[in-house]
Design a protein that fits this description.
Keywords: Glycoprotein, Repeat, Signal. This protein is about 0% helix and about 40% strand. By secondary structure, the protein is an all-beta fold. It has a four-stranded antiparallel beta sheet with strand order 2-31-28-27, with no helix packed on it. It has a four-stranded antiparallel beta sheet with strand order 3-4-5-6, with no helix packed on it. The protein has a four-stranded antiparallel beta sheet with strand order 7-8-9-10, with no helix packed on it.
Length: about 500
C-alpha cells in the first residue's frame, strides 16, 4: 500500500504490514486484565473503586461488590434469626423484654345442679334467733349471715354469725353484735364481707348505722361505726351494703333528700384503718320526680364501679318500673356512667330490687315482673362491652314460674353462672322458696337446675338472700322453723366443675 496503517491492526494478518505503523499508542493499559484473553483490551479498563468494602461479604462471590456495602448497624441482633437469610437484617431487632410472658389466667367455671351437695346451717350460738339468714354473703371459705330479729340484746336487736370451712365442714366461728345496739336496732339487716373485713347494716337505730369488723388474731373486732347525720330518721341507712378493698357503699333507700323516699347511697373509704365519707350518690337529672325512687334499695361494688338499684324509678317504664345506676370514679369523683332499665319493663316490675356483679356482667332482679303470672318475677343480664357500653344480654324467667313467686328477689352471679332466688315459690311446700341456677355459654344462658336444699319446708322462704364465691353458694331461709320456733337457717351448696 502506498501509505502505512495509522494504528496497529486489531487482529494480526498473515502478512506483515509493508511498512511500520505510523504512531504507537502513547500509554499502556493501567492494570492487567483480570483473566488473560487472546486479544488485548481495545481500551483501558474502568477506573477501580477507591475503597475496599468495609466488611467481608456474607458469602464469597466470584466477583467483588461493585460498591461498598451499606453502613453497618451499630449493634448485633440480640438473637439468631430463625432461618438464615442471605442478607443481614437492615436494623437491629426490637429490644428484648426482661421477663417471659406470664402464664394465661384461667377462671374455673362451675355449675350448680341437682348433683350439688347442700348443707343446712342454723344459729347454734343463740337461743333467741329469729329470721336467721335474712342476709348472707360469702368470700372464699367464710360466710356471714344476718339475723336482724334476734333478741340477743333485746327484742329485734339483731346479730350476725360467721361460719368457716374446716376439713369440708362449715363451723360457726363467731356471733357478732355491737356494744351499743338495743331493742329494735335490726343489726344484720344487710351484710357483706371482703377478706378479713365484714360490714353490717343496722337500720333500726335513730338514723341507721353500718358497723365495720375486722378479723384480728381469730377474733372479729369492731373497727368503725358509720352514720350519716344528713339523713333523716327514716332513711334506712344501712339497708344495703357492699365492700371492695378499702371502699364501701351504703344504701339509704327512704332518705328524703331531695324528695320523699327518693333515696341515697353513700361512699366511704378507709385510710390507715380510719373510714370517712367521700361521696353521696344520687341520680342525675330531674326530668321526672325522684319521689319514691327508693334509690339505694340494693348496692354492689367492684374494683372500678358502684351499682345502685332504684326499684321505684318511674322515668322510663312507669311507676315502680325501676332502674339501676352505674357510677365510675373519674378524677377523684364518683360520676354517673349509665342508667339501665329493662327493655320490656312495665309499671310495678321493681327492676333493681336486687343486683349482683362479676367482672363485666351485671345481673338485676325484677321480682314483680308479670311474664309468667302476676308478680312471678324476672331477672335481666347486662354486659359491658369493649367500648364501655352496657347492653342487655338476656331476660331470664323461671321455667315453672307462677303467681307471686317473686323470682328475682335475690340474685348472685359468678363466672358464667347465675343464681336467682324466688322466695315464695311453692315447691316443695307453700312459700318454701327455690333457687334457679343458670349457665352461660357464649351469650346464651340456660336454666340448669332448681335447688331446694336440705329439709326445706313450707314458709322457709329459701331465696330471700343469696351469694356466690367460686364453687360455693349460700342462701338464706329466714322462715325456717326449728323446734316449733321460726328461727331461720341458711343452705350452702357446692358446685361441680363444668
Amino acid at each position: 500500500v502506498p501509505e502505512p496503517t495509522p494504528v496497529p491492526t486489531a487482529i494480526p494478518v498473515p502478512e506483515p504490514t509493508p511498512v511500520p505503523t505510523a504512531i504507537p499508542v502513547p500509554e499502556p493499559t493501567p492494570v492487567p486484565t483480570a483473566i488473560p484473553v487472546p486479544e488485548p483490551t481495545p481500551v483501558p479498563t474502568a477506573i477501580p473503586v477507591p475503597e475496599p468494602t468495609p466488611v467481608p461479604t456474607a458469602i464469597p462471590v466470584p466477583e467483588p461488590t461493585p460498591v461498598p456495602t451499606a453502613i453497618p448497624v451499630p449493634e448485633p441482633t440480640p438473637v439468631p434469626t430463625a432461618i438464615p437469610v442471605p442478607e443481614p437484617t437492615p436494623v437491629p431487632t426490637a429490644i428484648p423484654v426482661p421477663e417471659p410472658t406470664p402464664v394465661p389466667v384461667v377462671i374455673a367455671k362451675y355449675s350448680f345442679s341437682a348433683e350439688s351437695s347442700s348443707t343446712k346451717l342454723t344459729n347454734g350460738l343463740s337461743t333467741k334467733s329469729k329470721k336467721f339468714g335474712m342476709s348472707v354473703a360469702i368470700d372464699g371459705d367464710t360466710i356471714i349471715t344476718g339475723d336482724p330479729n334476734d333478741s340477743f340484746e333485746g327484742t329485734d336487736s339483731g346479730s350476725t354469725s360467721v361460719f368457716n370451712l374446716s376439713s369440708d365442714t362449715w363451723i360457726q366461728q363467731a356471733q357478732i353484735t355491737a356494744d351499743d345496739i338495743y331493742q329494735g336496732y335490726l343489726f344484720g339487716e344487710a351484710v357483706d364481707i371482703d377478706g378479713d373485713t365484714a360490714v353490717i347494716g343496722a337500720t333500726g337505730g335513730a338514723k341507721g348505722a353500718v358497723y365495720v369488723f375486722v378479723l384480728l388474731n381469730s377474733i372479729w373486732a369492731q373497727q368503725a361505726k358509720l352514720v350519716d347525720l344528713a339523713t333523716d330518721s327514716s332513711a334506712q341507712f344501712g339497708k344495703s351494703v357492699a365492700i371492695s378493698g378499702n371502699t364501701m357503699v351504703v344504701g339509704a333507700p327512704t332518705d328524703d333528700a331531695p324528695e320523699t323516699d327518693s333515696g341515697s347511697a353513700f361512699v366511704f373509704t378507709r385510710t390507715d384503718d380510719v373510714w370517712g365519707k367521700v361521696a353521696q350518690l344520687a341520680p342525675s337529672g330531674r326530668i321526672y320526680t325522684l319521689s319514691n325512687n327508693r334509690f339505694g334499695t340494693s348496692v354492689a361494688i367492684d374494683s372500678e364501679r358502684i351499682y345502685v338499684g332504684a326499684p321505684g324509678d318511674l322515668s322510663t317504664n312507669g311507676t315502680d318500673s325501676g332502674a339501676v345506676y352505674v357510677f365510675t370514679l373519674s378524677d377523684g369523683s364518683w360520676v354517673e356512667e349509665a342508667k339501665l332499665h329493662a327493655s320490656d319493663g312495665g309499671e310495678g316490675d321493681n327492676f333493681g330490687h336486687s343486683i349482683s356483679v362479676f367482672n363485666d356482667t351485671l345481673v338485676v332482679g325484677a321480682p314483680a315482673d308479670d311474664s309468667n303470672a302476676t308478680d312471678s318475677g324476672a331477672t335481666y343480664v347486662f354486659v359491658r362491652n369493649a367500648t364501655g357500653e352496657w347492653n342487655e344480654e338476656v331476660k331470664l324467667i323461671a321455667s315453672d314460674g307462677a303467681y307471686d313467686d317473686n323470682f328475682g328477689w335475690s340474685v348472685a352471679v359468678g363466672a358464667d353462672v347465675a343464681i336467682v332466688g324466688a322466695l315464695y315459690a311453692n315447691a316443695p311446700g307453700s312459700d318454701s322458696g327455690s333457687l334457679y341456677t343458670y349457665d352461660r355459654t357464649g351469650t346464651n344462658w340456660s336454666e340448669r337446675s332448681i335447688l331446694t336444699g336440705t329439709d326445706t319446708t313450707s314458709n322457709d322462704r329459701l331465696g330471700t338472700s343469696v351469694s356466690i364465691s367460686d364453687n360455693v353458694a349460700v342462701s338464706g331461709a329466714p322462715g325456717n322453723t326449728e323446734k316449733g320456733k321460726e328461727t331461720g337457717s341458711i343452705q350452702v351448696f357446692t358446685a361441680q366443675l363444668r
